[in-house]
Amino acid sequence: MDKHATTATVRLGPLPGLPAQVYPARRPLGEERHALLLWLHGGCFNDGSAAQARARCAMLAEAGADVVALDYPLAPEHPFPAGLDAAFLALQALAARPAGLTGSVHTALLVGGEEAGGNLAAALALMTRDQHAPALAGQLLLSPMLDPALGSRSMRQGECGSSSCLYAKGWQAYLGRCAHADHPYAVPLNARRLAGLAPALVLSVAGHPLHDEASRYAAALRAHGSPAQDLALPALDAGHAHHPIHEFLREAARRALSLPA
């Protein structure tokens, strides 16, 4: 059997809804706890798909999450805030019926994403705080794209940041007008209010162009009093990321569901 196979395809948000792939958790979190994770695939805002994230979603399911991978609208046809708004509607839909996907009322809701998806996940955490719903147990960010200036040391060392690089093209497609670069939901790293956010686990790869902005965001969250842990790993694969993700999911669910350790 294909270990990456999904068991269901669902549609989330207002009719007709956006397609999403469901990956049931393959490892218990203990004490009847469940973590329902809305996953936003990688890419540079203008590429990628939920289907291409199958291996990543399978890894998250092995770590203990019930994963729902969303195909969000891509730039430049759908610039900011189209993809973010669609993801927020999908998150609200999941919050309305978490037990329908996990089979348990003891379900904590989390958001997560990689690269551009990590940006959207971080922005969703800001939106849920500002709108006081839905309640998030945590945010899982893998090598998130957070700095359109592309001026970090890791970006320069990776010989990225020029107008021809994938990150620059992705930011240009997503932001459209430069004024959007000042919006905290478009660039969470520039947000002035980072207090009161769901706990974050920020994972990056040592030497990766996005490493420095990931570390900066985790540090900024901590500076504002929001719980955040950041780890630089040799690779974002099951061998290196499985354990920290499992521990993060387990603790987030325990805390959100007020269950004993």
Q: What's the number of extended β-strand segments?
A: 8
Q: Which geometry do the CA atoms define?
A: globular
- The overall average pLDDT, rounded, is 93
What is the CATH domain class? Alpha Beta
CATH H-tier superfamily: Alpha/Beta hydrolase fold, catalytic domain
How far apart the termini lie comes to 35 Å
Order of helices and strands: EEEHEHHEHEHHEHEH
Helix-strand makeup class = alpha/beta
Count up the domains: 1
Number of helices: 8
CATH topology: the name is: Rossmann fold
Q: Main β-sheet, in a few words?
A: 8 strands, mixed
Keywords: Hydrolase
GO molecular function: hydrolase activity
Pfam families: Abhydrolase_3 (PF07859)
Organism: Pelomonas margarita
Describe this structure in words.
The protein is of the alpha/beta class and about 260 residues long. Helices cover about 35% and strands about 20% of the residues. The chain has helices spanning about 55-60, 80-95, 100, 115-130, 155, 165-175, 210-225, 240-255; strands at about 10, 20-25, 35-40, 65-70, 105-115, 140, 200-205, 230-235. An 8-stranded mixed beta sheet has the order 1-2-4-3-5-6-7-8, with helices on both faces. Helix 7 (about 210-225) links the parallel strand 7 (about 200-205) and strand 8 (about 230-235). Helix 2 packs across helix 4 (about 115-130). The longest helix is centred in the last third of the chain and has 20 residues, at about 240-255. The protein is globular and about 50 Å long. The chain starts with 7 loop residues before the first strand and ends with a helix.
